[in-house]
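Quick question about two entries, pasted in order.
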Amino acid sequence: MISDLKPYLEYKDSGLPWLGRVPGHWDVLPHRALFEEVKEREQPNEQMLSVTITRGIIKQRDLLAGSSKKDSSKLDKSAYKLVCPGDIAYNKMRAWQGAIGVSALRGIISPAYVVQRLRDAHNPRYFHHLFRTPGFAKEAESWSYGITSDMWSLRPEHFKAIYSPLPPDEEQAVIVRFLDHATHRLDKAIWAKRKTIALLNEQKQAIIHRAATRGLDSDVPLKDSGIPWLGQIPAHWKVMPLKRTCSLVRDGTHLPPARTMTGYPLLSVRNMMGGRLVRRADDSFISKADFEQLNSSFVVRPNDVLMAIVGATLGKVAVVDDIGPFQIQRSVSILRPRSELMSHAFLVTFLRSPRLQQHLWQSVAFSAQPGIYLGFVANIPVPVPPTIAEQVSICDSLQRELSPIDTAISRIEREIELLREYRTRLIADVVTGKLDVRKAAARLPELECAPADEPVLAEMEEAGDELAEDNA
């Protein structure tokens, strides 16, 4: 189906750098000719909607479900804007990042958002696909204004000045039908691969739990740890509060980052990647004076163990490598194992174990976001094999056992990334007329509905979904 696609026979120059050539029978029109802004309000009892980068327009309760995000909308919703099915809505501050789409729902959105409605009976799903392409996002960025990138805003008058391609109405319907079918197939393939990764991660968690609570010998005599959530451990192991196994248990600095790109790095949970602490191009910094003041009290050292204690990544663990001088933000706890009692590798293994992670989340305190107190961390009961040699042997064996699983996960993740890239490119090429799908669409069977328990691709990728400006 997809491999047979070819370009149109005749093209013309659109006059737009982001669009290039378009089929000769397509129009290219300014949005002022295609859309009208609507500002219908006084519908406070309608359901709240959210405009997201990855999922388009969804119910706010679906965004909040299973998330640490909170409803930040105002109690009085009389000023919120009504969105009807077929309307295009976008987040002014994030349209250039892809926070735009057509709504299949009736509801209300933040007054800071913009609602546009097609003037004629064009297919809104065509524009949904078009407006979420990288090319259009770049064009929206060029029309957005603000002092800094995090304040750029695509105002309605500038949205109206943007030009977009307009295929004939019947061809819009054909394009939408083809893309619905093609993306459904690609999403199913990606969903299947994500299920495989989930199963591999479950296998990993079982292996980690066994290593952290049983060691290497499956026939070792066991005893009750005295900790309900920990269960039994080898009879020759001890259980100690974490503070006894570490010479340092503290959080990072409370100082805010400086408004500068120079000084010393102030790292955070964002730098904890793949179990290691790594530098990033967008790191925050603190001044030389603040760094020297902090360094007079403590320095984060190689082989210190870090654990996130605030936010959606609570429980995330990493080991510090020798990456040069830096300080760490307060949302991360810093644990320094006593070399005579605890291997940093074994401590990391235990902190990553599923029962400990479950215990952390069952113990959280909520304010603006979930968190645990440093005193709680210090008193976490830790199973301790009696010798460092046994701890190191356990971790070495664990690494050998996990290595092929990690390799398989990395390979599947790369396959998913390639499918996502192909999906994005296919949509962009079709909606901008680089590929002609009319014959292919005519051969398509009726699109089968996705199973009720099968999430589409976008539902699996929530990193960019936020309630930005919903409290405006």
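Here is the second entry:
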Amino acid sequence: MALKKKPVTGMRDILPNEMELRDYVQNVIKDTYRSFGFTPIETPCMEDIENLSSKQGGENEKLMFKVLKRGEKLDIENAREELDLTDMGLRYDLTLPLARYYSNNANELQSPFKALQIGNVWRADRPQRGRYRQFMQCDIDMFGEASNLAEIELILATTTCLSRLSFKDFEIKINDRRLLKLMAGYSGIAEDRFDEVFIILDKMDKIGLDGVREELIKHEFAEASVDKYLKLFDGINGSDSPLKYLLTTLGEEATDAITSLQEIIDAVDASKVAEFKMVFDPTLVRGMGYYTGTIFEIALPNFGGACGGGGRYDKMVGRFTGQDVPACGFSIGFERIILLLTESGFKIPGAPKKVCIMIDKKFPQERIPEVMKKATELRNEGNAVLVVRMNKNKKFQKDQLTAEGYENFIEYFAD
């Protein structure tokens, strides 16, 4: 039986043209983030199954690829529960592995610590446009900075990076999990049901205010609480200053969150170099269970979902060490950015000219050093040079190479 030549569902082969673009985008990301003082690090692709199942990853924990125990440790016949069979899993994001990394190495790291991490993650998700089961994430995070300087730096670094990749007129949506909880509590919703409300609220952009109301009633929330809750959104939408409206309505408890949000928006607007808007979005939830404060997302034109996001997760390190450490991070949606750049026909700026040297099959072997010398000269001049033998169908060969970006052809024939 012949082996299967296609990759497994949700994973894909990356062809040379896309790989060239991916390398370029990664380099822009790394150079930009390094200029903001972020330090590259790396974590393993697998983590302990108990860490990955700690209810820190929200819905992503349900999409985890789990790894069976090996050798004699794998006792299928006597297994009573899943943990008897598995002990590791492929990471579904970079945040939890980073928190473990920081917890394990904090004594050797600067404080505050600014981490840059780029790597593949895996989720058993339903594949669709811009979504795969293996995909790359690009994260920057700050540990040990309790003030909103962390959020400001993260947003400025990320938006500068997007600008350098030629994105314009995008939005950074921002909210605070503390406000989400205050709004739900103000409406008379029990604290142990907040997450249910937020899951439904997160659908607002798809089903609208009426759809959210219908779902909340369907989930047996009191009608009076639902009406009071949704009236807050009506008030926000009708206000010239949504944050001031919420401060007036929710009272003193909302002061810290609202003041922080306004400070972040003002600081970013005053110092940004990219063309984008900061938008307060009271329906922004972010699905991860670990967020404790500010949350944000990237909304790019021509894409229907988020192209990156992040927020503050001050309690995660404490799950490893018993002592909380302020933490905040921002992740760029690398695969979706590659998709949008490809669809827009983006050309890599400053790419070296591609030259192909084609050698006739009858070209004498003793003259090959002459060809290699010419290739070296061209490379020293800054060109990318490919040396190949001519195929029988030279026109088809040149057409293929032209499609890969080769502009100039030098042909060597036997005398």
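Reply: DSSP finds 14 helices and 14 strands in the chain. The longest helix spans residues 16-35. Hope that helps.
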